[in-house]
Design goal:
The structure is a single chain. The protein is built from twelve helices and no strands. The protein is an all-alpha fold and 299 residues long. The longest helix is centred in the last third of the chain and has 28 residues.
Length: 299
């Protein structure tokens, strides 16, 4: 094994820890910081970090003129703005562990969208994965449907579908810009949308007075901004530069495992047996649709 792939695998494990622990960090941060302010700050710092990395590496950070700019705006709205904003409000209305589990049904929605939009044919493993995912979601959601699905659950489903739609849209648009530029501009679009929401919907105090900030809130907020957003995005694009995108995507399955574990250990959540069963089925389903295989493309 060469040093380059080995380093990328270590980075992938580190990314799983950073993004996984970001779930409880966001939940704790929301106890003192308004949701729009949290996303404005986190996305803004992440965008600045990615642009700084691109400039240090002397990569072209400008976007080509023409329709590609419009495609980047649409992708940024789906992949970053809508996804992150929906997740923030989802965590206000549901347990973090459940939100994390449902969000990582994204590969299933992406597979369906790719079949409908891109004409990708599904092999037996991916059909099995979709079936497992449907059963997993049913097991997870059925006990909650008796009294109506909580808004947080619906928002988490919306976030997963938005993420999947943005991923397939980028494939369909065939964007040619530098990956770091695509990431930086999408994060910047997300930050602008979040800031617009802050100015439009939130009035009054966005952050608690310094005297009311305890160590737990300060650590969670600092972790979310510096590690969960800025450092994690830099790490992610460094990984993509070293590994095939499919392998990198497969490695992100560590994120919900760490997220659910962190919710149990740091937030004191106790997932029900149906939550754990649904998580196991959805995890296996995502594994099926992300594993390399023969996926036939239309002629």
């Amino acid at each position: 094994m060469s040093a380059r792939p080995a380093a990328a695998r270590v980075m992938l494990v580190l990314l799983g820890l950073l993004w996984g622990l970001n779930w409880p960090a966001v939940k704790i941060s929301l106890s003192g910081v308004s949701p729009w302010a949290l996303r404005s700050t986190g996305l803004g710092v992440a965008a600045c970090t990615v642009f700084a990395l691109g400039l240090l590496r002397r990569r072209p950070m400008r976007l080509p003129r023409g329709r590609e700019r419009l495609h980047v705006v649409v992708a940024g709205l789906l992949n970053v703005a809508l996804f992150n904003i929906l997740l923030t409000f989802a965590q206000l209305g549901a347990a973090t562990s459940r939100v994390a589990i449902i969000t990582y049904s994204m590969p299933l929605w992406a597979t369906l969208a790719a079949r409908l939009v891109l004409g990708e044919r599904l092999d037996a493993m991916r059909v099995g994965g979709l079936t497992l995912g449907a059963v997993g979601l049913a097991v997870l959601l059925w006990p909650l449907m008796a009294s109506g699905l909580p808004p947080g659950i619906l928002l988490a489903l919306g976030a997963a579908i938005s993420w999947a739609a943005g991923t397939v849209y980028m494939k369909w648009a065939r964007l040619s810009a530098e990956p770091l530029a695509l990431a930086g501009w999408q994060l910047l679009i997300g930050a602008v949308v979040a800031l617009t929401g802050l100015l439009s919907f939130e009035h009054g105090r966005h952050f608690p007075p310094w005297s009311e900030i305890d160590a737990r809130l300060l650590l969670a907020l600092g972790y979310h901004i510096l590690f969960g957003m800025a450092a994690a995005h830099v790490l992610w694009f460094s990984i993509v530069a070293r590994m095939p995108a499919g392998v990198a995507a497969l490695g992100t399955l560590l994120v919900p495992v760490v997220g659910v574990t962190g919710a149990v250990l740091l937030l004191g959540e106790r997932p029900a047996l149906t939550d754990l069963a649904g998580f196991a089925l959805i995890f296996c389903a995502a594994l099926c649709v992300l594993l390399p295989g023969r996926r036939r493309m239309p002629r």
